[in-house]
Amino acid sequence: MSETTQTGPMLSADGVPLKTSLARALRRQKTRALLLIAPLLAFVIITFIIPIASMLFRSVENQIVSNTLPQTVAIVGDTTAQEASMDEMLFRVLYLDMYRAVEAKAHTRLGSRLNYEKSGISSLFRTSGRKLETVGEDFEDFFKDADSGMVKGPFWHELMQGEGGEDLLNDRLGLLTDLTSLEASGDLGFTLSGEAAALLPWAARAYADWALFTAIVDEKDVSTKKPWAGVYAALALDLADPATQSAVAAYGGSGAAELQAAVANIADMPATEFRAYFEDIDDKWVAPETWALLKVFGSQYTSGYFLNAVDMKLTPDGIEQRPDNERLYLKLFKRTLIMSMVITVSCIVLGYPVAWLLANLPMRSANVLMILVLLPFWTSLLVRTSAWKVLLQQQGVINDILVWLGFVADDSRLIMMNNSTGTIIAMTHILLPFMILPLYSVMKTIPPTYLRAAKSLGATNWTAFWRVYFPQSVPGIGAGSILVFILAIGYYITPEIVGGTDGVFISNRIAYHISSSLNWGLAAALGTILLAVVMLLYWLYDRIVGIDNVKLGG
Amino acid sequence: MFSMRAPGSACPRCRHTKKGGTVAKSSGGNAFVEFQHVQKSYDGEVLVVKDLNLSMPKGEFLTMLGPSGSGKTTCLMMLAGFETATHGEIMLDGQPINNIPPHKRGIGMVFQNYALFPHMTVAENLSFPLEVRKMGKSEREEKVKRALDMVQMGSFGGRRPAQLSGGQQQRVALARALVFQPELVLMDEPLGALDKQLREHMQFEITRLAHELGITTVYVTHDQTEALTMSDRVAVFNDGRIQQLAPPDELYERPQNSFVAQFIGENNTLTGVVKSIDGDKCVVKLDSGEEIDAVPVNVTKAGERTKVSIRPERVEFNKSRLQKGAHTLKAEVAEFIYMGDIFRFRLKVAGNDDFIVKTRNAPDAVRLTPGSEIEIGWLAEDCRALDA
Q: Which of A3, A232, A246, A326 could form a disulfide with A139 if both were Cys (CB 3.0 to 4.6 A apart)?
């Protein structure tokens, strides 16, 4: 045969490369195997991987600032906080951004988000909302006095409706969809006139915002409705510009008469000083600190949550440590790790003899013992923890017995609950089976002849155990320790119930941020760090002990 | 040298021991290992070992042979100290050892599956018994090296047991049992896991070492070939008793009862009634009516039922080689099996369809054709009338 002499890839009988042929032959098998696991795979991806990935993503995500105040943030990003706080142009843009955000009711969310970084910001955003409209209404009154037709819908619709302003309209649409996460659907019933956009740039932007909001969010007819008061403020901005005034005089399109009437009365128009208006609303708006905050947290992604999670903070001057009285998380991480280790060690100490008995007793007694070990598994976790509460409290069973036996004086009962002692006792009990079962399954595979052999060679019982039996049971200790430690490090219910303040774990803090403070970003950052610590320890364990040495059975 | 009690007989010494408080040594002063009326029960209802009496001189290689459940391993474990005797005394070098824990007995032991410590290297395994004896490092290393060389494993000291083949593990286990120079070594079916060829080789190695080092060895097996080829003496166990304790040739040629005759080697059995006994000869009337000559072994008077046992290679069908006047039997050849070195015939004799005869494939050997009728006979001393 020529197969032995041919170079290049091996060919099958029909000349197809052997690898291709093999892959084809195996494809059916592989497809079937994949189909068999497909339901589980889908389940895991949908209920486990995607939620975790999205949760982890929250720890760096920060789009709320740039989505709510997009154009403001863009300007702040290019300047210093000091300059920003003095820049009239910035406040004009801020007015439009804020107005849109207020209408979409997004300004309070942004306030809550920024409040995590600097307290008091939340109320600034909340109280400013209403007052922005008041500013606009002053201008609206002026235009109403100039020509009452200007405060009616048709005037605006005729002025702004037309062709050529598609680019601007699309820009504004993009800002709105970022803010509300709504998708524009179907016909808006409005197109922006390019001529109007060139003549009155501010008013065109504000009107476009309003028209899009009305058409998409409110789902109303744009042509007859009167726009937001903010649109009048924007028109005033345009007309206050002398260049626009002369352009309006030359303008002959629809609404020309009304605009010219307004220009004629321009001396009566309120001043278009938006920085001053914002200063009136709240002088925090003109404080450089506020703008520094917006500058630091204006980016799409932030390390702020992670820094918070390790007791640091992001400031305009860089990263700095939080003051002593605000530090919390590092201490909690340290406590969680140390207490988990203590729990793991107590589980080894208590579980080892039990596992040994299980593996070496005759079948009947071993089965009874096994049921006793598994019994706690059949009881609700909450019930077991609550039972410890009954046992451990100062007027509880253990203290009563100690007092009755005279070991403890009645007025100095032991405090075993609402501190770390309580957490360690209750969690050791709850996690003990996770240590015993892997230990047992490893010990079961160690034949008793090894101990006999050691003794026949002259070793005492202790030497035989320590030199021969124990080293062979180490893989079980490893497996049990990994299980117990990883379960302990993320435990929540037991520390919550018996831990008090000294005995709580980092997971209790995570739960607090998820369900009470609603600071999901910080919760996600804490969770990510916890995950990273566990993986780091796992890696260390692999380096030192070797993961091949871990046996869960057989 | 040994005391053997016929099955079923009472144990008068037990009472005597309790009353008198002393035990009469059954075999003089040179016994190194001695079992005296040892009984063992695990559950308090069934005796696994019933009245065991055994005594071994120093340097002997003794094999305990028997079917599984016959009590042989239990005896070994009692000697090693892992099981306690329910009754009776075990003596080692004149000292009772019933209350001495296993690690102080100084007995080397080779286990069925070697029991080499998997987390230690070969050298560490061998060093272990020396370490627990607080021996110095250099002395330990030297002894380990010598022991490994002794079993031709000198270059394997750094390996783990899992990296060795079955035969190599066996050698290491042997070396480990010998490295601390025990005077008594126990082996519990040590060759059971090896293939045939390796097993035969190791049988030779073990006996050679045992004799070279002059150690006393108790060897447990259920393989009769192993027992016959290796031992100075073999103790055949059944039903918790020693059925016969004898050197291999005696065991094979002169079995004391029908169990031993059946258990050791191939054997033809015919049943009948003793017709007459005359000194060391007797005539047995078979159930089919024919009469044959036999040696009375455990039949005492005429009229007793008996099983006569005859080895296949001792059956003769060349009449000229038989004694004058000897009884012969008619036989029909049922089957002829050619086995190379020997011929094997299956005959129908006196109602027994499974009567085997073996002849050596010599130049003058006869090849009987199936269906032919012949006459067979044997020397009276080869035919033993045993218990029924």
A: A232
CB-based contact A525:A416 (threshold 8 Å)? no
The tokens describing B180, both together, are 């601390």
Query: Does the reported pTM lie above 0.80?
Result: no
B175: closest CA of chain A, how far (Å) = 12
Both tokens of A305, joined, read 């949550």
Q: In the Cβ-directed half-sphere of B238, how many Cα atoms lie within 13 Å? A: 15
What kind and span of H or E run contains A402? helix A397-405
Cβ pairs bridging A and B (under 8 Å): 64
* CATH class name, domain A329-549: mainly alpha
pLDDT tens per residue, range A169-203: 888 888 888 888 777 666 677 888 888 888 888 88
Of how many residues is chain B composed? 388
CB contact under 8 A, A449 and B115: yes
Residue A453 to residue B109, Cβ atoms within 8 A: yes
Question: In this prediction, does ipTM exceed 0.90?
Answer: no
Q: Are A455 and B103 a contacting pair at CB < 8 A?
A: yes
- Which residues sit opposite B377 in a β-bridge? B316
Paired with B199 in beta bridges are none
Question: Which residue do the tokens 């009590």 mark?
Answer: B71
B positions 80-139 inside 8 Å of A (CB): 80-82, 101-104, 106-109, 111-113, 115, 117-119, 128-129, 132-133
Q: Using an 8 Å Cβ cutoff, are B123 and B144 in contact?
A: yes
| Tens-digit pLDDT profile for residues A248-288 | 888 887 888 888 888 888 888 888 888 888 888 888 888 88
Structure tokens at B15: 């009472």
CB contact under 8 A, B129 and A452: no
Option in A455, A456, A471 nearest B119 (CB): A471
CB A541 within 8 A of CB A483: no
Contact A252/B at CB under 8 A = no
Domain boundaries, chain A: 25-56, 67-296, 329-549
- Is the CB of B79 inside 8 Å of chain A's CB atoms? no
Cβ-based neighbours of B304, under 8 Å, separated by 6 or more: B273, B274, B388
Taking the Cβ of residue A470 and every Cβ of chain B, the question of whether any pair is shorter than 8 Å is answered with no
Q: Are A321 and A312 in contact (CB under 8 A)?
A: yes
Pairwise CB contact (< 8 Å): A449 & B118: no
User: The tokens of B297 are what?
Assistant: 């072994």
Residue B148 dihedral angles phi and psi, to the nearest 5°: -70, -40
Tokens (6 digits) for A317? 């001057």
